Amino acid sequence: MAHTVLVLAYYYPPMGLSGVQRVAKFTKYLPQYGWNPIVVTTGPTLYYAEDQTLLHEVEAAGVEIVRTEPSLRVKKLLEKGVITMPRESVRKFISKSSSALFVPDNKKKWAAKAVALAKDVVARHPVDVIFASGPPFSTVMAAAQLSAETGIPYVADYRDLWYGNQFHSYPTLWHKHRHQKFEHQTLARASRITVTNRRMKEFLIANYEFLDFHDVVILPHGWDPDDFAQPMSAETRGRLFPNGSTDAFRLTFTGTFYDSVTPVPFFKAIKKLRKEHPEVKLELHFAGMLRKEYQAKAHRMKLDDIIVNHGYLPHAESVSLIQQSDALWMMLGDARNVDTWAPAKLYEYFGTQKPILASTPKGAARNDAMAYGASYITDPYDVPAIVQAVLSMYNDWRTGRHMTPNRDFVLQHQRTVLTESLVKVLQKALRVV
Hints:
Layout: E1 3-8, H1 21-29, E2 35-41, H2 52-60, E3 64-67, H3 72-77, H4 88-101, H5 108-124, E4 129-134, H6 138-150, E5 154-158, H7 173-189, E6 192-195, H8 198-207, E7 216-218, H9 225-229, H10 234-240, E8 249-256, H11 264-276, E9 282-289, H12 292-300, E10 307-311, H13 315-323, E11 327-331, H14 344-352, E12 356-359, H15 364-372, E13 375-378, H16 383-399, H17 407-412, H18 415-432
C-alpha cells in the first residue's frame, strides 16, 4: 500500500547550492519505496544560485510540487534574476540584523503561506506523515502547527542545529530564550527527529530531557549513484578543464566560503608550498562562490596562474568536476558547536573515492573523514600542516600510491540507502499516533 508524505521545504529546486540537495534527493527516491511525496515549497524567489537540472530530476521522478505565490515586491525584483552574494562583512551584518528582527528566522511569512497551502493539500489528499527540513526552522514550526491542527504525525529533519547553531547570533537573552522555547515546543510535537550526525543527536538529547535515544535518528548526507553514472560530454570537459590535460595535480573545492569557512589559510599554505617546493605543479579548482574578495587575496598571494574559478555550476557538472579531480579539499573553521556540523559536500566527495584533504576541527566532519579512510586531516588554520598534507597528496599521486577508501562506509552513504532508512522513520512515525 502506497503512503503519502507531505514535505515542507523552503530550499528546493530550482534553487541551487547544497541546502536543496538533501530533500531533493529524498523526494526523488521515496516513490521507489512506496511513498509518494507532495512538496510544499516557495515559488520564484531571489536566491544566489539556480539549478534547473535538479528541478528536472525531481520532476522526472514524478514528485508533485506545490509552490507559494511570491509577494509583489519579489515579483518585481525577480526581473533581475539571481542575486550576487555580498562581501562577507556585509553578509554578516545582514545576518545579524535578521537574527535581531526575526525569531526563529526571516522565513516566518513564507512559513505562514506554506501552512495555508498545506491545508489545501491535506483537504485534497490523504496525507499519512508530514516531513519538514530546517533550516529555516520556521519551516519545522509550520509542520508542528499543521500536525497539531490536522492530527497528522510529523518528522523534523535537522540539517544543522537550531538553538546553538554555529552561525546564529542572539542579540539579547530574550532572543536566546525565545529560540529555546520555540524549539522545545516544536520538538515535543514531533513523532521522530532526523539529524545528520551523532554529535547533533547527542546535543539535542542533552538539551531536551523529553527526548530519548530512539526519538532522534541519524540520517547523514550522501551521494547519488545516478549523478556519478552520468558520462561527461566533450563540451563539458572543455568548459571545466580549459587547460586540457596537464601534468598538474588537480585539487578541487566545491561550495561557498562564508563566516568561519575561509580559503585564506589554504591560500597561505599553497603560497608557502610553491616557494619551498617549486617542482610541485598544482591546479586549484573552485566551483561555487569564490567571491571577489577571496579572488583578490589569491591575486595578492600570486596564485592566479594556478586557480580555475568556475563560479556556480549545475549540480551534474559539479559532480563531473570532482570525479575528474585528483583530490578534493574541504574546510570548516572554528565556530560554536562546530563539532555538530557535517557539510553536505564532504559526503558527495565520498562518492568519488578520491583522496580528501579535510581541514576541520574535531567533531562529526573530522570523524567521518577519518572513517572514510582516504583522508589527510589537518586543523583548519595550521598552515604548515596543510603544506605537508598537500605535499604528501601530491607525492602519493605522482608515485601512484593511493590511500584506499572504506568501501562499505562509502556505500552506506548512497542516497538510495539513506532514503530507505528515511522510509523506516516515516513508517515508525505512523505507528506513534
